């Protein structure tokens, strides 16, 4: 089985200067290419995320490595794809997340993008002849852990001192 088989409903060629723009309209037609076809024919291609999947995108390499260590240390079932800026983590989408979110803060204080398969998210897999590398592969992805859920704001607990109301802010945050 090829990496990503359980993540994507199909594949499409990509174009553009950055190699990340879908070259055909797939949203209206729902027509996709096979993996074998795009990888042999195109210098750039992407996978269209399956409807029940979520891409948890960390664009900072230091933070992405922290999340990757959490995935490995806790044996989380997900797939991880390295990008030029960070990493994509692929989980099943929880019912509570119903829209894409860009530059949202997750519950552990890391900035992330959340992209849903049900919103026709295309993931660049090969750009101008260079394939992205899979770093971790989960057989059947699990639902996004709650610690990675987007939140409205996260207090800066690390820089709080006595008298700043740490306990109250932490209690409110937990709720």
Explain what this protein looks like in three dimensions.
There is one protein chain. A 7-stranded antiparallel β-sheet has the order 11-5-6-4-8-7-12, covered by helices on one side. The N and C termini lie far apart (42 Å). By secondary structure, it is an alpha+beta fold. The model has no long low-confidence stretch (mean pLDDT 87). The protein is elongated, with a radius of gyration of 18 Å. β1 (8-15) and β2 form a beta hairpin. It contains 3 helices and 12 strands; from the N terminus they run ββαββαββββββββα.
Rg over CA atoms, rounded to whole Å, is 18 Å
Strand order of the largest sheet: 11-5-6-4-8-7-12
> What is the overall pLDDT average?
87
Q: Unreliable runs, pLDDT <50, ≥5 residues?
A: none
The span between the termini is: 42 Å
Helix content: 10-25%
Question: Could you describe the largest sheet, including whether it forms a barrel?
Answer: 7 strands, antiparallel
Which range does the strand content fall in?
25-35%
General shape: elongated
The secondary-structure element order is: EEHEEHEEEEEEEEH
The number of strands is 12
User: What is the overall number of helices?
Assistant: 3
What is the structural class? Answer: alpha+beta
């Amino acid at each position: 089985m090829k990496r990503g088989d359980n993540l994507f409903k199909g594949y499409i060629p990509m174009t553009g200067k950055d190699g990340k723009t879908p070259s055909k309209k797939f949203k209206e037609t729902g027509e996709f290419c096979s993996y074998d076809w795009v990888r042999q024919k195109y210098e750039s291609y992407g996978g269209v995320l399956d409807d029940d999947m979520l891409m948890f995108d960390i664009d900072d390499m230091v933070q992405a490595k922290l999340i990757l260590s959490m995935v490995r240390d806790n044996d989380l079932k997900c797939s991880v794809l390295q990008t030029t800026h960070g990493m994509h983590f692929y989980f099943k989408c929880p019912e509570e997340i119903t829209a894409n979110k860009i530059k949202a803060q997750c519950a552990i204080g890391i900035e992330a993008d959340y992209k849903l398969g049900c919103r026709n998210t295309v993931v660049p897999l090969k750009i101008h002849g260079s394939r992205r590398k899979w770093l971790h592969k989960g057989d059947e992805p699990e639902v996004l852990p709650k610690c990675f859920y987007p939140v409205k704001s996260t207090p800066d607990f690390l820089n709080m001192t006595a008298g700043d109301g740490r306990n109250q802010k932490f209690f409110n945050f937990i709720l």
